[in-house]
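User: quick one
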Amino acid sequence: MHHPEGYVNHEIEHGIATIEFFHPSSNSLPAAILTDLAKTINDIGIDNRVNVIVLRSAGDGAFCAGASFDELMAISNEAEGKKFFSGFAHVINAMRKCHKFIIGRVQGKAVGGGVGLIAATDYAIATTASAIKLSELAVGIGPFVVGPAVERKVGVSGLAQLSIDATNWRSAEWAKRHGLYSEIHDTLQSVDDSVNSLAERLAHSSPQAMAQLKKVLWHGTENWDTLLSERAAISGHLVLSDFTRNAIQKFKSKSAK
Amino acid sequence: MHHPEGYVNHEIEHGIATIEFFHPSSNSLPAAILTDLAKTINDIGIDNRVNVIVLRSAGDGAFCAGASFDELMAISNEAEGKKFFSGFAHVINAMRKCHKFIIGRVQGKAVGGGVGLIAATDYAIATTASAIKLSELAVGIGPFVVGPAVERKVGVSGLAQLSIDATNWRSAEWAKRHGLYSEIHDTLQSVDDSVNSLAERLAHSSPQAMAQLKKVLWHGTENWDTLLSERAAISGHLVLSDFTRNAIQKFKSKSAK
Amino acid sequence: MHHPEGYVNHEIEHGIATIEFFHPSSNSLPAAILTDLAKTINDIGIDNRVNVIVLRSAGDGAFCAGASFDELMAISNEAEGKKFFSGFAHVINAMRKCHKFIIGRVQGKAVGGGVGLIAATDYAIATTASAIKLSELAVGIGPFVVGPAVERKVGVSGLAQLSIDATNWRSAEWAKRHGLYSEIHDTLQSVDDSVNSLAERLAHSSPQAMAQLKKVLWHGTENWDTLLSERAAISGHLVLSDFTRNAIQKFKSKSAK
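Assistant: Done. Structure below.
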């Protein structure tokens, strides 16, 4: 699925589906990409040719810059706000409900919703350059939709650190120590070797056992369809504040080159 | 609020409220200090001039020695026991329900209830000398009231280690690795720089977003008014045992100089 | 209790009960050993002479190789499957419900159910050689019965890493960092010194306080009688698959010397 800016692609080979997303702004996530991502994961989740999924983004820069600032600025009422943030909710819920394991392949930094995507994978392998940040509070919102997925991996203590200290990066080492990354590697080649090796092993593992294991690992999240929707409404309300408008305006003028 | 021994002070400046408590016995916590602390947090929690709270204790020695041994020894029945331990419950619940983030500033060691106070902050910054100990079992009781707050940060595994191995200190490094401290610094100056920097940033962050984030970070603790009260009754019962009387007597004669 | 192959022994001295199990195949766990282990823990749990329990296995090789492959291969229907895996459920539930603290003494590697036993102790002390592996997925099943106990210690993120990456060992250092081990030591002598020192201290601690603390540390697991039984049924079903038959056959022929 191609868009004027960015895409969601996938290919299936030897039981392994590889999903790749791209956006020219450091792989940020506009609504169209989020919709495609959720749909692709849902479709592949029931594709019998597939035994395991690899989720990656394009390029050798950032893994994902989170929500699209342009779209955030365009939100003009609570309904639009809730709808926008529900885009992340749908992707996380698609990943959560998929009966197949999703391996995250992380080549670089992740911010906000991008951290949420990584948290919703079942096993994330990253480079040592893959620092993370939940910067939402700096623009007057919060990591409400991705919060449950991030907390599930790094604990409430890790989520508090990330979300309260919103302007500082946490290193890939921090993210590994707190359970967001399962492995970190010095080079992208080593990341890819490890991703391929695990994907091949899982492609030859018992689909029944993996489906049961996935279910067990996500126990207690059965209410996330509702929860993440409620969370999207919180963000959708806060994003309309003057605080957010001014903060995003400042960010945008600062990063304009 | 001043007492014959010790005090709870606070000052408000540029949206930052700093609460300081002091007791000459290594900042231990008699009932009067606990009552003042809970009241101060409750009052500041609804003070519109305040956007963020810093909780600290006085001096450059221990952060907090926990419950006052003198008062523990004076407890003569279960009602008094429950009332004494409820003092900690009220402080933790005040911190939990406060709509503002509380930054903990930790200059040195913490024991028992002192570890509970730190756990109930939203973001704790400590010196590398700030070792911790849950020594309750050594005097025939247990960290029942502070347990939920400590477990929320360090997990059930960390709580088990601290509470079962009751006579050994865990280092500040341990406490950071397990999520009790968000940051540790070699010098107190560096701790203060980091506390001030974070407090100033939060003083200029969106109060609405922070209130929502605080609520979300404390989800699942809605029953703590009841739970911590039940826990206070357990400690209040155990503290009457001969085991506790003898153990505290021994500690006191040992530490008498 | 002696069996043609292997045993469960115990001795009681100065308030400390030491339970030891042995099986010639790297301390693997056939049904008879599991039954004896659960019974011994239940009996000692109500023995007034005992204040604390040490759980260990024999020899200086592996701590425990998990389920017995011979018995896995002999399972011919779902009822037998559920019954076999319930053996682990009974041991874990006996450990959980025991009012006394159980110290785990770990001299070497642990696999599958063996990792579950360690996770169900209250405080585990291991050598630095004590790597762990949840290899269930490699034979078409999963760590369903031991999952709740392992997740309670290492979090859902740790459990995901262990169970998805089923063919790789995690080091003792990993296990300590994630909360499975409370301490690791370079030598077995140092492990034993630490086990003895903690056991002696607990043997002289307040039984009432310890019983309350044990209860509090295991809060939220009240449904495990049912939960682990349901989990045993999942494993009992999966183990009948051709995938499992072939995988175990391969393992056995590989390890035959």
